[in-house]
Every structure is written in C-alpha cells, then in structure tokens.
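dumping this here before i forget
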Amino acid sequence: MIPIRILGSGSYVPSKILTNDDLREMGLDTTDEWIVQRTGIRERRIADPGVTTADLAVKASKKALAMAGLTPKDLDLIILGTITPDTCCPSGANWLENKLGAVNAVSFDVTAACSGFIFALNVASQYLNSGTYKRILVAASEVMSRVVNWKDRSTCILWGDGSGAVVLTPGDEGHQLLSTHIHSDGAEGEDLLVPGGGSRSTPITHETVDKDLHSLKLIEANASFRVAVRHFVESIKEAVKHNHLTLDDIKWFIPHQANLRMFQAMSKSLKLPMDRFYVTIDKYGNSSSAACAIAFADAVEDGSIQEGDHVCLPVFGGGLTWGSALIRW
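structure:
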C-alpha cells in the first residue's frame, strides 16, 4: 500500500449564529437547558440565503490548499461528501470544481449521510493506491438548515451548516492517513431519512410539501442512539486493531458530532476519559458529513493535534452508514 499523506486541512462555518434561546424566540417549544441536557448543543451556524453547499466548501478547500501549498489547478480529483448538494444535477462537486477554478480535476459526490467525509476519504484512498490520481481534494459540506422543519423540535434543534476539507497525496513524508474503514446496513435506511425529493416522490407537488416529506426525519431516536454508540465503538476498535495499536496510543478521538451524550457513552464503554474526545457540537451543532471534517480541521488549526499524534475519526449516519479513519499526524 502506498503511504497516503494529508498535505493540508481547513474548515469554514457561516458567521450567523443561531442559539437555543433564538429557537425559543422563534416559537419553538423548548429551552436552552432542555436542548443542552439532551444533545450538548448550545448554538449552531446558519448559512445566509443564497449561500450554497459549494460556497461553503470553497472556503474550507482554499484553506486546505493554502496549507498544502497548492492551487486549485494542481488538483486531479475532487470528492465532495454531502446530502445537501447545490443541485441534484449537476453534482455539488461539479459546482465546487467550477467555483474553485480546478480546471484539471475530475469531480463527483459521495452520499453517505453523516459518514460522508470518511466514505469520501476511503474512495480517495483507492484512487491514490491505484496511482490513478496524485492530488485529491476531499471536502464535506452541508447546508442542513435547508432540509429541516423548524417547527419539529425533535430534529431542528440538531442541525447546523458548515464545511471541512483535506488535500491528499501519495508520499513518504508527512501526516499520514493510516487507514479507513466503512460499513453500511441498507435494511435500516428508514431510521434517518428525507422521504421526498427522490424517485419515490417526484415530481415535487403541493401534496408532498404539505406532508412535510422534504425535511429530515429521525425515527425511533432512542433506538438509533444505542445503535450509533455500538457502531462508534466498533469502528474505533476496528481502526485501532487494524493498525496494531491500543486505545492508549490514540491521542484524540474526533467522532461525528452528533450528540454529546453519545461521546459520554463511548467514553464509558471504552473506559476512556472525556478529555480525549474533541468536541465542537456545542458551538456548531450537527452538520452531517461536514461535522467530523470541521472538527478535525479545527483541532489541527488550534494546535490540539501535535506532531506524531494518532487521531481516530469514527462516524455514524443514515443509510445506515458507519466507519472510521486513523491518522498519524
């Protein structure tokens, strides 16, 4: 296997902050205490009207490219993890390619819900190992605020907007993506879904809108919580075992930022202190595929991740999808 290096990382979140108190003032039957107690979220970022998923991805991608010392024209391939592309056709990655000016790159989307960043890293790894491409931008970007029902307290409190990105290349020196691991279970796809917009309910009609089929649904939240924690733990153990390491060798665990109570459950199950888990959900909410990418890039930028650190990124999302990546910085 060819060593895969991370040349640069970057994140971007919109400047607009929507707090829990703001949600209450919008007429939602909730309080800051109620949301924090159940999710750990205090605020989330919201994209301005007219700002798209690709617009957010451009910002994060330019940061990653600057850190890598590359320009968009140096890229061979762009992979975008998202469930909220600018349009279904063309893909969100096509829009990103154009807005970046990456005239030499091929681009496409990977759709794996909240696991999208790790799935995209896995796809990029195959291209690098085969020698097909040399410089790959992997981005994850979402405008989740456009697919929520702001009157549904069970879901709208969770989501935020943002983007994260990394630049990958084969090489013998530098920060290494040691491995990626992905899984899915299509039989459980009804647990977290946007029912409308696909071939099951097109064309979009007044009836499908009135039935609220175009916003994200979370079915059986308690059962999903338990399944998510189990798969998070399994994914961490898989990555550690594959690389012949122990849990004690991992400096940071940076999971998909879904729910602080999930982190606490993982901490208890793995017998690890909570200060080994890097948390951004309190200030950004859950930005689906982008959440893990943002948290990783933030940990690099603020110096939490230091030279030689092992970092594990476990994820879980609709599909169902789950997996992990292990990085040596």
